[in-house]
Amino acid sequence: MAAPNVTDLASGWERRMRELVDRFDVPGAVLGVSHRGERVLAAAGVAGLRNPQPVSTDAIFQLGSISKVYSATLLLAIAGPEILERPVAELVPEAAWMDHAILVRHLLTHSSGLGGDYFADTGRGDDALARYVTELAQLPRDVPLAPGARYSYCNSGFAVLGRLIEVLSGQSYDAALRTRLLDPLGARATVTLAEDAIMHPVALGHNRHEPAPLRADDTWSFSRACNPLGGVCASAADLLSFAELHLRDGRTGDGTAILDPDTARLMRRRHLETPPLTRPSARGLGWGIFDWEGAELVGHDGETLGQIASLRLHPDEQLALVVLTNAIPDGDEITRALAEAVLEPWGLVQPTIAVPVGDGPFDPAPYLGRYRNLDAIFDVDAAEQGLTVRARTIAEGLEDNTEVTRLVPLGDGAFVDGKPERRTRAVRFDDPGPDGRCQSFFAGRIAWRVSAEHE
Predict the structure, then answer these.
(1) Confidence (pTM)
(2) CB 283, CB 76: distance < 8 Å
(3) Which of 24, 76, 116, 165 would suit a FRET pair with 209, their CA atoms being 20 to 30 Å apart?
(4) What are the angstrom distances between the C-alpha of 198 and each of 65, 105, 117?
């Protein structure tokens, strides 16, 4: 069978994207695909509702947590893999408070146990990251277990890594990213600061909080200290250039070596398995590992104050997929559906979770109560043959928001979202106490029980 040709497939993908933008009432989206060096780019919709100009393929979007892969790449390009086993407290002066058992690799794999969601604004100066790391000392551990014992998504760990990059490079994070990674890559439409973003076409973020209608976001991006964890912004073409750097094992298109080939491959290895039915299935160094039917993909997703982005790589096929959208939460539906459409010609199918058929007995008692982490407070109540979770965002630096999710039981403490289109990952309740009540709730991050009943 002949290999799929991206040029031949591009028009169908663009039609699908336009259908999805209309269906989910998302202002705009950009798709980028690279296969063995051949690229296609397509755009649909508008850059923003306040000034509804057509979104262009060269528009800059916020990449959110895809920034973490940039930070991991930059750190390992500067220091090499030898740094992975070094205690963070010995490397970052402002992190002297940190348990010496926390190693650099724990931050890269989200297994340090540090409080995960802290988006504080520590100023616009070059000391923003140093001040941020100092403030982390005041926060509780989200996972009170030994480092490396449990996966729990940790934004703050990548701010610490950003400060480590500053210590090692002698530059601010933003300057080191530019001189050590973006300039050699030729990524001129990749930025971290708003004053640089406005030199390019820019997509504005939007939010839809039920029952309110979609509205333009009032904030462009996170504070400067959050750039290593979520502040990188780029065009689809520049993000494809970054993806192709990894597909070439650390070399640019002209052969310039930014990252050692062995290190690039090491980043894509499975370093930590995540709980069963979790997406991603495992963690590399910065990367997520996604087990699809037909192949193992590497990638990352990103969500900011008003935008959702997705990046997937199929290294064996030298294939990269980028989807950038400017709306929450509906942009997530577009990224998922476009990934399925683009990857289907390569025989790849995104796995879904089968829900047991029938109305067997279900006891909600072990799960009811309130759970909490730095991100949110979760109130869990009984529902007909399942649970409802009311999650209220409390993270410093994020907008207060409440979302209610219906959970369908899968057995053994696992549950899946009650909406069929969202059944691609599960949540879990674990750590039963002497009374049989679960002590932790996992939805990408671990939250610990704070009461049997709601406070």
Answers:
(1) 0.96
(2) no
(3) 116
(4) 21, 35, 28
